[in-house]
Amino acid sequence: MDQKKVVTLEDRIPKLKNERKQRANRRLILYLSFFFVLLLTVIYFQSPLSNVQVIEIQGNHYISDDQIIKLSELKDGTSFWGINSNKIIEEIGAFTEISEVSVKRKFPHTVQINVKEYSRVAYLAVDNKFFPILETGEILQELPINYFPSDAPLLMDWETNNELTEMAAELSNLPESIIHRISEIYYTPVEADPLRITLYMNDGFKVSSTIRHFSKRIIDYPAIVKELDPEKRGIIHMKMNPYFEQFVNEEEETIESEG
């Protein structure tokens, strides 16, 4: 018969005492950890460390960081945890040039504001002054003196009316590859076509088209000019059926320009 090991009470007492001591130590460490975390939390919220210290602005091209920060109403001393993201989005989103806004908090004290601006599809030229036109058709205040825009076409001889709004809407539908090919767009109405426009392209070609459905008519421009001799002067008519009309002399070109 196997002999069973008999453990006396005297042998177990030191082991029980040791386990009891370890449990007490663990509880003490847990309480101390909780106390220090609580203490650090109180210190954090009572110190400048809990305030917004860094504001990152992303996605802006035309609007300055300072403008966006001013619109957000974030200041030195603003609580990092007390910021109202919805209010910031509302204030910045109400600005004419902003289409989308998002706000993100990055611990411990950084606020990141991401914006998306409306595209500038053209610049209205009036008396040597240039007024940006947004894809919404909104006309902004004139650009600073001596600033010449080069990122979108110039609209020449236009008035601030329905035709201008419709033209802006058509330009907003164009890919950048086409927009960057256009240098100037003149409003040149005639009796047969009150919406006629004349374009001067950056590659030297001249185009006659119309405002209505312009974005669809001009989309084939790259393919058409590939087939043309760049040395020949003339005008590309891009309405129903595109075709190239070569000028015989400069006088004919002048007559065409005058309508």
- Our count of helices gives 8
Order of helices and strands: HEHHEEEEEHHEEEHHEEH
CATH architecture of the largest domain: 3-Layer(aba) Sandwich
SS content category: alpha/beta
Shape: elongated
- Main sheet strand line-up: 5-4-6-7-8-9-10-11
Write down the CATH topology of the largest domain: Rossmann fold
What is the terminal-to-terminal distance? 123 Å
User: Can you tell me the number of structural domains?
Assistant: 2
Largest sheet: 8 strands, mixed
Membrane topology: Single-pass type II membrane protein
Protein name: Cell division protein DivIB
Function: Cell division protein that may be involved in stabilizing or promoting the assembly of the division complex.
Organism: Anaerobacillus arseniciselenatis
Gist of the model:
With 259 residues, this protein is α/β, with parallel strands linked by helices.
